[in-house]
Amino acid sequence: MPEMIIGGEARASVASGDIEVVNPATEEVVDTVPAATPEDVDAAVDAAARAFPAWSATDTEKRAAIVAAAADLIADRAKDLAPLLTAEQGKPVAEAIGEINHLVHGLHYYAEAATKVQGTYQDLPSTFGPSYGMVIRRPLGVCAAITPYNFPLTLLGTKIGPALVTGNTVVAKPAATTPLATLRVAQLFVEAGLPAGVLNVVTGRGSDIGDALVTHRDVRRVAFTGSTPVGKHIMSLAGPDLKRITLELGGSDPVIVCEDADVDAAVKAVIIGRYWNAGQACLGCKRVFVHDDVYDAFVSALVDRVGRYEPGDGTVKAEKPKLRMGPIHTKAGRDELLEQLEDGASKGGEVLIGGGSGGHDQGWFLEPAVVADPAADSRLVTEEVFGPVLPVFRYTDFDDAITRANATSYGLGSSLWTHDVRKIHRAARDIESGMTWVNQIHYGYDELPFGGVKDSGFGKEHGLEALDHYVELKSVVVGGLA
Ligand code: NAP
Ligand code: MG
Questions:
Q1: pLDDT tens-place string over residues 189-238
Q2: Where in the chain are the domains?
Q3: How much of the chain, in percent, has pLDDT values that exceed 90?
Q4: Which of 45, 102, 149 to mutate to test the pocket of ligand 1 (most atoms within 8 A of CB)?
């Protein structure tokens, strides 16, 4: 049984409980991990606090080199890591490899970026004698990194990459259902030379240890990715102590396909955007609005492609031309999708394909679905749909499409398919979301700030902007020059 990583060592919980990690394709237990308690959280935060002075005083170049070495080790071990991620999460092995590659790319991005950051020099008025100012960057201290089950590794990387290179120490808490690959990756950081206590991992249920981690007095910053209700709870806990937080929450990304769109390219992008990771993606394409002129062509090509998916065990390749889709991560998640689908069908939606179990008695499978025109008050429209179920809508007026795209509490991503520069400009300006992709797949590039508005949260991960979330900008005035 893998143990937690606290102070550079494998550590059991102070209590005796375990958490069983279950393979969503087979319902078999993959492994067990300690069920951490608030005392374990204290031990991890203490270890991180003890490691902070030396780590924050280490040369940036040295910190970056260790992060880069860890990234190289992870790349070397991708073939062992991927099946472990598949076993605990469910995604096909090829998608697990994709996730690991993204993690490695992101870590290298921050290792390189950290050594290139330049500061500010400012001439100042000589009101109190000649002086100049500069802005220096100081790390914050212990940061908590709380990650969800859908992309356990990339979302770990988006937090620990910028945190570690800027000199902070970290306590990571993976989802209770996906702790295994995270523990393995943290172990590789230790092997790559990361000093003891700089990166700690506690395994436990959010309901048992989440509050203790967020409210710990030595935790200065919380980076959270997960659902909107838990994000709001974390904000309420972090507020009284003025802790810095970023909240990367749920989404209901709209896609608008205009009459001049490259329909084939749009369909291919929506297929990836909605059905990758069995639809369990924050920036998934969750509502598609298609212009009347191209609606029939779009929908028939979409349904055709969706029909190629074969839900099954992610370790077994599908026979061409079938495409593998893994299971839904939990039974509760699968059942909720079935309820949302049923609600959409009862409110005017026509289920064009999908919704069955794919003939599996074991595992939480769902055949990917497309639903035409469910009502605006159906759950497929008003809620985040976290799985392979896609509502498509017909529109005729572009302004109306923008209004409907914005008729959601969420505001994570959005996309537009057109070559009309006026519409591109309008969408970029008027769609309420943190990102708009134009003629492009919904994807979180390491190079660009990523994050939502409205109920999708705030704060940025990715890009150079994320580095600023892990430092205090401190103004220093130097006088006595004359
Ligand atoms: P979740 O239920 O909110 O859980 C996320 C993490 O929070 C898990 O580690 C969970 O631990 C922990 N947690 C639960 N209660 C907590 C508490 N009281 N204090 C501190 N931590 C607590 O989310 P999920 O179901 O795993 O993930 C799916 C959601 O994440 C979707 O809404 C999706 O859109 C969103 N997401 C957003 C982004 C983005 O970048 N915007 C990216 C990916 C996913 P347990 O597992 O132990 O409950
Ligand atoms: Mg959850």
A1: 999 999 999 999 999 999 999 999 999 999 999 999 999 999 999 999 99
A2: 4-249+458-476, 253-445
A3: 98
A4: 149
**Cα 72 to middle of ligand 1, angstroms:** 28
User: What global pTM score does this model have?
Assistant: 0.98
pLDDT digits (tens, 9 = 90+) for 136-170: 999 999 999 999 999 999 999 999 999 999 999 99
Specify the residue with its C-alpha closest to ligand 1, atom 14: 206
> For a substitution probing ligand 1, which of 282, 408, 414, 443 has the most ligand atoms within 8 Å of its CB?
282
CA atoms of 203 and 290, how far apart (whole Å): 44
Of 154, 227, 433, which is best to mutate to test ligand 1, by the most ligand atoms within 8 angstroms of its C-beta? 227
pLDDT category at 482 given cuts 50, 70, 90 is confident
Q: Which residues are catalytic?
A: 248, 282
Ligand 1 atom having least distance to the Cα of 230: 3
| CATH number, domain 253-445 | 3.40.309.10
Q: Which CATH class is domain 4-249+458-476?
A: alpha beta
Q: Which atom of ligand 1 is nearest to the CA of 456?
A: 41
Asked, colleague to colleague, whether 4-249+458-476 and 253-445 share their fold, the answer is no
- Structure confidence at residue 290 (pLDDT): 99
Buried b (16+ CB within 10 A) or exposed e, 397-430: ebeebbebbbebebbbbbbbbbeeeebbeebeee
For ligand 1, residues with CB inside 6 Å are: 146-151, 155, 173, 175-177, 205-207, 210-211, 214, 225-227, 230, 233-234, 248-251, 282, 384, 386, 412, 452, 456
